[in-house]
Amino acid sequence: MLSVSEALDRAQMLCDAATKAGADAADALYYCNAATGVSMRLGQLEDVERSEGQDISLRVFVGRRSASVSTADMDAGELAKLVERCVAMAREAPEDPYAGLAPEELLYKGPVPDLDLDDGSEADPQALRAAALAVEEAARAVAGVTNSEGGTASHSRTRFALATSHGFAGGYGSSGHSLSASVIAGEGAAMQRDYGWHSAHHLSDLESAAEIGARAGTRAVARLNPGKAPVGKVPVVLDPRVGGSILGHLLGAMAGPAVARGTSFLLGKEDRALFDSGIVVRDEPHRPRGLRSRAFDGEGLPTGARDIVADGRITGWLLDTASARQLGLAPTGHASRGGGAAGVTASNLHLAPGALSPEALIADIGEGVYVTELIGQGVNAVTGDYSRGASGFAIRDGAIAGPIAEFTIAGNLIDMFAALVPASDLVFRHATNVPTLRIDGMTVASS
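Structure for Modulator protein, as requested:
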C-alpha cells in the first residue's frame, strides 16, 4: 500500500505523462484497501481473510473525447504504456459536449483538513478473533437463541488520492473497524434470523461486543412465531435501521445524471413542497470521524454542509461536472469516482428529528405495522412507485404487538414524502441516519 504522498506523486506523474502524450487534460485516481477479517461460529474459528487491493485509474480528454483505463500494476513501465493506450483510445472515442474536468476556478484550494478518519491502528488477528468470539457469545447468551451464523470482526485501511492536470492534488487515509453477529432463534420451520452490527473509523467509537451481540439475539427471538399483518391502507412505521433507505431513494432522484437523462420522479417537482415544512435533510461532509466525510469530491471540488431538504423542499440537484453542464448549472461538490466517469453521492446524511418520542408517534395508531426489515428492490426511479417485501411487528391500540412476516408495503414516494413524520430518536451511528419514521396511508398486503 502506498502512502498518501506516494499515491499523489504517482497520480500526478500519470497526469503529466498524459498531457505530454497529447491529451488536453487528464486526472488520475489512486485507491487502495487492505482488510483483515476473522469469523467465529459456535465458538470455533470459522474463517480468516486478508485482502489487499490497489488500483490507479487514468482519465484523459482530447477535445471533447475521453477515455479511461485502470491498472493494479504500479510499475513505471506499465504505467507509461497505460498512458499511451488511454490517449489513443480517447482520440477514437465519440465526442461528448459535456466531457471535461471540473472548472479550474472552482477547485479545492489549500491543505486538506484532518477529519480524524484514521486512528493509526494496524490489524491484530488475535484481537479480532477475541472480538468475534465475544460478539457471538453475547448473541448466543440470549434465551431462545438456538444457532448461530457467526460473529465477525474486521479491520481495514484505505488510501485515496486524486490529481488533475489543471492543478488539483489531494488525498487522505482512513481506518475502519466493524463488528457483527447473526444468530437464529427457534427450531425447524419456525426458525427466525436477525443480526446486529456496527462500524466506525476509530476502534474507540465502536459499540461493545456485548451490546451488538445482545441486540442480534434479542431481535432474533422477538421475531419468533410471526402472525399476519393487517391489510389495507394503514400507518407504516419504519425502524431507524431500515428508514434510511427512504433517503437513498431521495438521493437517487436528486442525482444530476438521473435528472439530465430525464429518469427522475422528481422532475417538474423542484419547487414543490414535497415534505412537511418542518422536515430537514442535511448533508455534512466535514463531520469528524464521519463514515463518508471528505473535504473534496471525486473531481477535486470542495465539499460543504448543505440542507438538501429545507422547509420541506429540495434545495437543488446534486451535480457532478458533466450533469451540471448538461443542465446549465454549476457542479455542487457531490461527484464520486471509482475509476472512469464520475457519479454522484452524498456524504454523512441525516434526517432531523421531530418532537415526538417513538412511543408518542404511534400512540394514536389503532392498527398498523412497524417495519424492521425490507426485502427486494421494488422501486421505480422514474415514477416513484414503491413496493417492498417486509417483516416486523403489528401495531395495535397504540403499542407494538406481536411479530408479523411475509407482507408488502406499497405506495408512491411522492405521497410517502408528504406523509412522513419523524420521531425524536435520531442517533448518529451510520453514514445515513434517520429517526423512527411514520408514514400514513401506505397499502399493506399479505405476501
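The radius of gyration is 24 Å.
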